Amino acid sequence: MANLEQNQEYEWIERVKSEGAVPLLEPNHCPNGWSSPPGDVFMVRGPEYLKTKAKIPGGDYLLKPLGFDWIKGPTKISELLNNPKNRVRRALEDACSKGHKPFVWAFNLQVPSKDNYSAVAYFVALEPIQEDSLINQFLKGDDGFRNSRLKLIANIVNGPWIVRKAVGEQAICIIGRALTCKYSVGENFVEVDIDIGSSMVANAIVHLAFGYLTTLTVDLAFLIEGQTESELPEKILGAVRFSELDAASAGQLELPSEGSDGNLQSSLPTRFWKSIGQGFSHLIHPGAQENGSISGASHANDAADADANKP
């Protein structure tokens, strides 16, 4: 009976994995698809990091991979899991109706472009969240705490030299210090909408990379930064690899049009060329820092970080 219940619990996960616009494939060969890379390809803060600055391989993930969406819409895509018609939200509600208690995480990378692309990675926790865990602090904390802790590690596994040079060997940033993030927290999910266009340098790097999209293999890991000895070693929440994506493969998402988003999108080409003029040197030498934002981020972000770090 226990095995039957476990199989039923995993069945909905396998269904979600297989339903996206691009397929789930093997990590070593996933053209125009996605996969879950091994955790050891990422380096995270080790147990003695505060004393020695030593990092260790990431190891096992805290969450299970659930799915990946490569989608586009008439406006910037956000709050996917607040939409009852969203495919992952429907699957989640169905699982909960059968007595399961999963908790879903969604990281929505909003790509600055006229076609409003989003790359969305979904992960799921099947065990109850521990009260004294860093995850629980993140979920119950305010946006200031979340912005100061949510970390992204990006690896360019394969791609042209210019993109690898722009991103670096392993780019690391505290997402909320570099980019505008919107958090949607529900009873059984959390979604982070990450506006890449909110940073001139990130915007320019992504525009550069988008031109080579069909030749790129990218690994992205999400984790909550450990800042005290009791929070180390760091553990990766989850990671996704996408490879050689074709823009034409993106699924079409119909959303109600909003004027504010339209105004933002119409300004993106101008912002892009300004970012090229003001920050091209940062593309060649980005210098992403372990504790900082993306190098060369806008003055507004720098000022906000300075205020946040005042005692």
Radius of gyration: 19 Å
Question: Largest beta sheet: what is the strand line-up?
Answer: 9-10-5-6-4-13
What is the count of β-strands? Answer: 13
- Provide the β-strand percentage band: 25-35%
Provide the domain count: 1
| Estimated helix fraction | 25-40%
Shape: globular
Encode the helix/strand succession as letters: HEEHEEHEEHHEHEHEEHEEEHH
Largest sheet: 6 strands, mixed
Question: Taking all residues together, what is the mean pLDDT?
Answer: 85
Uncertain regions spanning at least 5 consecutive residues:
256-289, 292-311
Number of helices: 10
N- to C-terminal distance? 56 Å
Structural class: alpha+beta
Describe this structure in words.
There is one protein chain. This protein is α+β, with helices and mostly antiparallel strands and 311 residues long. The chain is built from 10 helices and 13 strands. The strands form 3 sheets. It has a 6-stranded mixed β-sheet. It has a 5-stranded antiparallel β-sheet with strand order 1-12-11-7-8. A two-stranded antiparallel ribbon has the order 2-3. It starts with a helix and ends with a helix.
What's the quick description here?
With 311 residues, this protein is α+β, with helices and mostly antiparallel strands.
What are its keywords?
disordered C terminus, alpha+beta, globular, 311 residues, 33% helix, five-stranded antiparallel β-sheet, 13 strands, single chain, six-stranded mixed β-sheet
